[in-house]
Every structure is written in structure tokens, then in C-alpha cells.
């Protein structure tokens, strides 16, 4: 006779439930994570080499903070793993000319895609500027700056040739910059 036969009905039920639970938890196999010194226990299986030189950590009203701690308070361009200060007019699309995008016409190799972050809201690029970039052979994707930063991180991590032209959430110019 089994032990359950001698127990009261409530105890028999509890014994059955605990046996089921024990069987259910034994069905899972857990392997301990391997940790290597300095990797924090994480392994990026997608990267073929080192991480991209520019990675956005966060974006606030004060500016764009990079993973290395640098705070960019005004417009900037991420291109080929580097950060460039971008001197543009303070008012969106007023007095903007193709010259503000010349860097994408001259750089070799050209980025596969240019992510244009237009600040807090999505503001479509004027047709003459869009046509200029199209003639330069640059594919353009316009979005707000938060989404542009997030998409940039993702595409750069995948190893894609991506560029980002980012306007801050709160419009401001670089201190000491010449007129745009």
C-alpha cells in the first residue's frame, strides 16, 4: 500500500499536487551562463568585431548622450563611426539648403541609409532637399530623433553602413558656431 492510502483526503490531495509540481519542475533543464572576464556575461552573436564607435545611450531635452558619456546638446551627424557637429539653421526648414547635406554627397563609401531625426515630431523634408539626397544616391528615412537614435543603434550594431543626421529635441545651436 502507498503512503497516500493512510493520509486524510486533504493531505492526499496536497501530496499529489506536490508530486505533480516536482515532476513539472524536473522537466526543465537549466544551464549556467558562462562568464568570461570583462564581458559582463553577455555575448553578442551578431557582431563580427568590435562594437560601433558611436552608440546612443539616451536622449533627453538636454541633448543626446552617447554610450561613452558625451552629451551632444545640438544638431549632429553620425557617419562612419564618428560624430560631426552639424551647423544648421535653428528654425526647421527655414533657410535650409542642399549645402547642409553636402557631406553625404562627398563621403565614400556612401551610407546605405540616412536616418534624419527631426526633433520631437516627424517633420517631412522639403522636396528640393529630398531630391538632392536622392541624386546623391542616399536613401533617406525621416523620423523623430528618438526613433532615429534607436534605429541607428540597431543598424550600426548589425554592421550596416548607416548615417544619422539628428536635430535635438529642444532646438538649439552650437555655442560659437558661425551662422548657418
Molecular structure report:
With 180 residues, this protein is of the alpha/beta class. The protein contains five helices and eight strands; from the N terminus they run H-H-E-E-E-E-E-H-E-H-E-H-E. It has helices at 3-6, 9-26, 102-106, 127-135, 145-157, and strands at 56-60, 63-66, 71-72, 76-79, 82-85, 113-118, 140-143, 162-167. The protein has a five-stranded mixed beta sheet, sandwiched between helices. It has a three-stranded antiparallel beta sheet with strand order 1-2-3, covered by helices on one side. The model is unreliable at 23-37 (pLDDT under 50).
Give a nutshell description of this structure:
With 180 residues, the protein is α/β, with parallel strands linked by helices.
Please tell me how large the radius of gyration is.
27 Å
Which stretches are low in confidence, meaning pLDDT under 50 for 5 or more residues running? Answer: 23-37
Helix count, DSSP H or I runs of 4 or more residues: 5
Largest sheet: 5 strands, mixed
Straight-line N-to-C gap: 92 Å
Number of strands: 8
Q: Which features would summarize this protein structure in a list?
A:
180 residues; five-stranded mixed beta sheet; three-stranded antiparallel beta sheet; 8 strands; elongated
Present the secondary structure layout.
Elements: H1 3-6, H2 9-26, E1 56-60, E2 63-66, E3 71-72, E4 76-79, E5 82-85, H3 102-106, E6 113-118, H4 127-135, E7 140-143, H5 145-157, E8 162-167
Parallel strand pairs: 6-7, 6-8
Antiparallel strand pairs: 1-2, 2-3, 4-5, 4-8
Amino acid at each position: 500500500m502507498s503512503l497516500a492510502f493512510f493520509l486524510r483526503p486533504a493531505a492526499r490531495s496536497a501530496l499529489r499536487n506536490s508530486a505533480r509540481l516536482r515532476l513539472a519542475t524536473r522537466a526543465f533543464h537549466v544551464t549556467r551562463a558562462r562568464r568570461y572576464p570583462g564581458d559582463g556575461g553577455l555575448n553578442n552573436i551578431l557582431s563580427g568585431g568590435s562594437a560601433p564607435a558611436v552608440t546612443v545611450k539616451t536622449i533627453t531635452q538636454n541633448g543626446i548622450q552617447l554610450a561613452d558619456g558625451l552629451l551632444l546638446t545640438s544638431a549632429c551627424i553620425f557617419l562612419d563611426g564618428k560624430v560631426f557637429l552639424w551647423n544648421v539653421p535653428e528654425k526647421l526648414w527655414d533657410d535650409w539648403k542642399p549645402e547642409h547635406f553636402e557631406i553625404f554627397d562627398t563621403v565614400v563609401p556612401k551610407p546605405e541609409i540616412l536616418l534624419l531625426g527631426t526633433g520631437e515630431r516627424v517633420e517631412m523634408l522639403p522636396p528640393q532637399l529630398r531630391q538632392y539626397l536622392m541624386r546623391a544616391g542616399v536613401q533617406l528615412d525621416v523620423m523623430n530623433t528618438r526613433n532615429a537614435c534607436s534605429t541607428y543603434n540597431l543598424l550600426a550594431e548589425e554592421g550596416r553602413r548607416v548615417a544619422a543626421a539628428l536635430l535635438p529635441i529642444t532646438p538649439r545651436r552650437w555655442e560659437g558656431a558661425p551662422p548657418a
